[in-house]
Amino acid sequence: DLYRKVFVFRKDPSDAFVQLRARLEQPLQNFTLCLRSYTDLARPHSLFSYATKAQDNEILLFKPKPTEYRLYVGGKFVTFRLPEGGTDWHHVCASWESATGVAQFWLNGKPWPRKGLQRGYTVGAEAAILLGQEQDTFGGGFDFYNSFSGELADVYLWDTELSPDKMRAAYLSLRLPPALLAWRSLSYQVKGDVVVKAQLLE
């Protein structure tokens, strides 16, 4: 149980990552991914990378610069642009629905304009799931200048699109529905220079 704890990725650039294990019974037609991050990196970096043998960017949450997030599904991406701001914790939720191809992005409990992405696509189930690196091959192929440095917490992945109420609940750390990946019962393995520490701020 990682309640009120964070992963600290200490080095920049880094070869470190955290490998996650999810119980995926079948391919995904929908998903919601939520996580909290805290970094002062100005260069591109990967937050969450879900790769299959067929597609290295099956699901990828990537930050090319401080004012942009990219959500990839099946190798294609949409960009969500942020206002210029200082360094602070970002709570991000990204969801996607195959039937409509609608991608949603929420930052700190607020929705951004929805975008279209990969309508009719199916996300594969046999996945390597990593925090802190972007996979260019299944489970590897890292570019260390896309590595994450900073703090990550509250990682969740659901096989549904969460309702707006649940998106806000995730931001407020309230009770959440059962998830494929859940911070309170995370199955993970640290590879390299990553330490688990108590959260400093609310």
From TrEMBL:
Localization per Swiss-Prot or TrEMBL? Secreted
Q: Could you give one GO CC term from the UniProt record?
A: extracellular space
Q: Which UniProt keywords apply?
A: Acute phase, Calcium, Disulfide bond, Metal-binding, Secreted, Signal
InterPro entries reported for this sequence: ConA-like_dom_sf, Pentaxin_CS, Pentraxin_domain, PTX_dom
Molecular function in Gene Ontology = complement component C1q complex binding; metal ion binding
According to the record's subunit comment, the protein's assembly and interactions are:
Homopentamer. Pentaxin (or pentraxin) have a discoid arrangement of 5 non-covalently bound subunits.
Q: Report what the protein is called.
A: Pentraxin family member
Name the lineage: Eukaryota, Metazoa, Chordata, Craniata, Vertebrata
